[in-house]
Structures are given as structure tokens and as C-alpha cells.
Amino acid sequence: MNLLRENDLIFGRLLKIEEPHLITRYNKALDAFGVPQTKLASFEIDRTGFSPQIAEELDDAQYLDPNGVNRRFIILTPAQIELPVVHTAFSNTSQLVYEFMMANARAINAITIKDVVYGEIEEQVNQVRDIEDLLSIAQVEFKVISAEDLLGKAAELGRLADRVKHEPDAWRDDALLNRMVAIARETGDIRENSLVPEQVVFRHDAYWTSHFGGIYIFTDPDTTTVIADPATPGFRRSRPWQVSYLSKDDPARIFRFLAETGRIQLPRASWVERSNYLAHRGEMVLLDLIRREEPDTDFARVDPVWLQTWTHRNAKLVAGEGSVPLLNAAVREISQTGTLKIEEIPPRERFLVTRADPEHKDAWLTNRLISDFVPSDFMARYVFNKQGFYRDYETWPQAWREHVVARLKTEYLMDKPALRKRLYGLES
User: Fold this and answer.
1) Which helix (H) or strand (E) holds 300?
2) E strands, 110-188, where?
3) Tens of pLDDT along 304-342?
4) Residues 171, 178: contact at Cβ < 8 Å?
5) Would you say 124 and 136 are in contact if contact means Cβ atoms under 8 Å apart?
6) Helices (H), strands (E): how many in the chain?
7) β 207-209/201-203 pair status
8) Considering the entire predicted model, what is its pTM?
9) DSSP letters spanning 2-58
């Protein structure tokens, strides 16, 4: 993984922590979790406070996520809201932490001037034993603590202030007034700087989870859809009257579900021609075929002319694999008719010519699911499914790794919004 680290393709854009007072605060949170303190003089953290360096030091990548549920978080600075989340069992953890930090920005800004905010994202279960445990998580609650108990002291100051307002003789109570002054020296004026998060409960909607080898859960008004390995405990046994179960190896039913719920865009000239999406897919498939058939290829030489020459020279191989001819035929049909007869395409190959509807709230999750059926497209895998990308990366020869890294650096990292907009129609 060193090549990925050197090029900011793993653990990139993290926040470096090296100020002694921040390290001390971080260690107070670790103490509260029962985790050994770090001895590092500097380390990096993501939005949740997870540090790859501390995980390596502890030899425990799960130190903030010991059971894969009730994720712990450590907030040292409001700046964490701009960071990615690099380690999580749930794909929506990043969004939940973002919503929490946005909704409680004033309190977090005030507390982190003097203290660290930490706690757990409580998910109503302590262990995931089967699908029913996942389905029982309808919402999450952020259980928030501060190391110096500024939250508790602010709440106490609020109660004392209420007594002064509403009890006629409370202003004569010197002990009460002295206590208020003492607390205010630590908390500041809580009328101006709120120290108590106001919104701590958030919906837990559609997501992917790493439990049981990977499960997708999509929520609609009248039903919940689970996409998983049929061997997963609880598959087709938990609430069958309101939960639809799809095998992750059943592309026909999965595609039909995504189409019927409006989560995908079927191939139409209106977006296909503008995005050059099918040409991109064709190049990805072709490069993957070359990687598998001729792993010693010097990929630094690869350009459109080289690819065309290789394709002609290996016409039988390309035709036998089938994806490139299918994509070429799709481009021709769309240019002539404006659409594509999707029902005439084999179920698994339908994902080659489809993308998530960028207007749907589940667009990122849907693109992640699509990438599972098109692993040859390393660009989509990296953008939407980093866990899958990193697994793929471990199996690749060095020459292919270097080619992929170079492509991601020049085509994605240089301008992420532009690529996401062009290929996937996404605004952010």
C-alpha cells in the first residue's frame, strides 16, 4: 500500500495532529474508551478521529470500532468536518458525523476551544449477529462526552441560571452565585456560546456494511430491500412481510429493483453522449483484459493508438470476452435511436451501460453497488467503493498498480468534482 500512501490515494487529506495539548486531549478520550494512550509525537486523523498511525501503533484497526457497531468518535477541532472517513463498517458513517457536526457547529466550536468532544454513535444493538440486528437500527444517537466535563458544567450552569430567574430569593444565595461564577470561568457565557449539542438523533437510512462479507440495505416508503449472500444469518427470515431479500449473485433481480425504484438511469442519448460514459467503460474493460492476459505489458506505453493496435491484433480474444463488442454496439444503437433495448442485454452486462440516477438520494450507494458488477472499472471502484478497490489492488502486479495510480492522480485527484460530474452527473 506504500504506493497508494505516497500518492494520497489511501489515508489522504487527513489532519495532522502534533500540538501537545491536542495529543493530551486525544489521550484523555482514549483513556475513557479503555484504549492505551498513544506515544506518538504526531499522527493524522479523519473526520471521526480515527488515526491510521495509532491503529498501526496499537495493532488494532478497530480501536474506534471494536464490534463494528456503536462507532466511537473523537473531535479535537471543528476542521474535522472537512475530512474524509477512512475506516468504517458502515458506508453512511461519514454522512452521519457530518450531519452531527453541522447541526451542532456552535457547541462543537465552543467546546473544542478548551476540550475534546468524544463519545459513541449509539445504534441500538451491541453486536451484529444476523440481518435482523441490522434492520433494527432505524436511527442513531450521538452519546457525547467532554473530557473536562464542560458539557455537564454548562448544563449545571443553565439549571442554576434558571433558579435565579424563577426563584424569588435565589439571588440572595451566595453559595449558588459563587458556584455560577466558578463554572462560568470554565464555560464562558453559555448565552453566547452554547456548549450543549442540540441535535443528537439522526436517521439511519440506506447503507452498505462490511458485516457478513458485505450487505446493502435500501429503504423505501413501504419496504426495505436487503442485498446479501443468501448464507447470511437471517436471510429471508427477518420480517419477510416488509423486507425484500435479494441474493448479491442475482443480477437480474437486483437490476430490476434498481430500475423499478428509480435509482438508476437507463442508457439514453441525453446523458450517454454527453458523458462519454460507454467509451470510458470500454477502455476500462479493454485495459483489464490486457492486464489479465498480458500482465507484463508496459502500461506507460498505452495510448489510444496502442489500444487500437492491440485490439486488432487480439480481435478473437476481445470478441470472446464480449464486453467491448457489446459496448460498441450500444453506442451505435443509442446514436441511431436515442436509447438501448436493455432487455436484450444479459443481466450482468446491464450494469456496464448503466449509472445511478444522480438526482436520487442513494446515488453514491447505488454507484457503489453497480461497481460490484463491473470490477474492471477501477475508476468507479475507487470513487464509490474504496474497500473493494483496495482489495483489488492487493491482487494486482506492480506494473498495473503503477498505471492505475497514475491514472487516478491525473484524471481524478486533479479535479474530483469535474470527473464525478462528467461521468456520473454528480454535483458533489
Assistant:
1) none
2) 117-122, 139-146
3) 999 999 999 999 999 999 999 999 999 999 999 999 999
4) no
5) yes
6) 19, 12
7) unpaired
8) 0.86
9) HHHHHTTSSSTTPEEE--HHHHHHHHHHHHHHT-PPP--S-EEE-TTS--HHHHHHH
Domain ranges of the chain: 2-147, 150-187, 206-249, 250-424
How far is residue 48's CA from residue 271's CA, in Å, rounded to a whole number? 36
Question: In sequence order, which residues have a C-beta less than 8 Å from that of residue 336 and are 6 or more positions away?
Answer: none
**Whole-number Å distance between alpha carbons of 100 and 144:** 11
DSSP run (H or E) holding 179:
helix 174-187
Distance CA 107, CA 109 (A): 5
Cell numbers found for residue 334? 443509442
**Integer Cα distance of 215 and 2 in angstroms:** 29
3-state helix, strand, coil in the chain (%, to 5): 50, 10, 35
- Give whole-number Cα distances, 368 to 185, 286, 381, 387, 418, in Å: 50, 21, 7, 10, 19
**Cell representation of residue 168:** 424569588
pLDDT digits (tens, 9 = 90+) for 51-96: 999 999 999 999 999 989 999 999 999 999 999 999 999 999 999 9
What are the Cα distances from residue 286, in Å, to 35, 69, 91? 48, 40, 30
